[in-house]
Amino acid sequence: MLRILGKAASINVRKVLWTCREIGIAYEREDWGSGFAATDTPGFLALNPNGLVPVILDDGGALWESNTICRYLAGRHGRADLLSLEPRARAGVEQWMDWQATELNGSWRYAFMALVRQDPGFQDPAQIEAGARGWNRTMGILDRRLARTGAFAAGAAFTLADVVLGLSVNRWLMTPLPERPDYAGVMAYHARLCARPAFLEHGCNGIP
């Protein structure tokens, strides 16, 4: 059986859990990460040299990086609806997954660490304000995309791009930002995702 190493509260672990639920994959999850089993031990670092969760273990060995794991699971289980086999359509999904992992993730770090984690190292008021503005600006890119598709990130159908972006949208909505633009496209998108039981279980479940 598939083993997932990582605490259930982690946003990146939740990507994998959501993907498993969409596909119908049975798994065993083990608590690793902050507050649980340490990820800086030689044993864990042999699985992921970055010392981060999630890591999956199956008969192919260990695999890390959450977006890569989601792609692997969709491919292994023949879910071309989640990640197309046609090169152009696949690239359309992967570009939004990569954007989530780079541009969008990079934009929320300071504001999220300050306002949700309340980390003492992230309490400069000017940087919080700048971070919130940058996060909102980046979310505006997604809002305009969703206004064009009228449905999901890669087009009319739900794909893996929506797993990773849906969790990011949930985080944005749950963070007490000083100001949050009224993005109609994002809000309609969030409502569409809330019709999916897997999102309610692993995305919109009260965890930012």
Automatic annotation (TrEMBL):
List each copy of the GST N-terminal domain by range.
Answer: 1-81
Q: Which domain of life is it from?
A: Bacteria
Q: Which Pfam families match?
A: GST_C, GST_N_2
Which SUPFAM superfamilies does the entry link to?
GST C-terminal domain-like, Thioredoxin-like
- Domain GST C-terminal, by residue range, is 86-208
Q: What protein is this chain from?
A: Glutathione S-transferase
Q: Which organism is it from?
A: Plastoroseomonas hellenica
